[in-house]
Amino acid sequence: MGYAQNFVLLALTVVAGTAAAVALVHAAIQRPDAFPAVDRQSKVIWVSILAAATAFIWLFGAIGLLGIAGVVAMLVYLVDVRPRVDSIQNKSWFRKS
């Protein structure tokens, strides 16, 4: 592989790994009752999934088989679960309340 390809893979891993770590922290600081209230898995399950996803991405890269599984788990949380958990608690990352 050339230097450019290695740089792109490293950049993808850093971005995905950072996003997974942010998702993990977000899940860890939420109220436990917010997850079942929006018909999702429990807080413990999501924190466990995101911890594994973060580890997989950082250990195996964002392109390896386990890394891709980690990226998918992180994206499901950030796109589906996080907005619902935030809305039920009247929180928002990007809009002023």
Structure characterization notes:
The chain is mainly α and 97 residues long. It has one domain. It is 74% helix and 0% strand. The chain has 4 helices and no strands. The chain has helices at residues 3-28, 34-37, 43-60, 65-88. Helix 1 (3-28) packs antiparallel against helix 3 and helix 1 runs parallel beside helix 4 (65-88). The radius of gyration is 15 Å and the shape is elongated. The relative contact order is 0.16. The model has no long low-confidence stretch (mean pLDDT 91).
Keywords:
97 residues; mainly alpha; elongated
Radius of gyration from the alpha-carbon trace, in angstroms: 15 Å
The helix/strand series, from N terminus to C terminus, equals: HHHH
Number of strands: 0
The share of residues in extended strands comes to under 5%
Mean pLDDT: 91
Structural class: mainly alpha
First and last CA, distance: 48 Å
| Number of DSSP helical runs | 4
Shape: elongated
How many separate domains make up the residues? 1
- Measured as a percent range, the helix fraction is over 70%
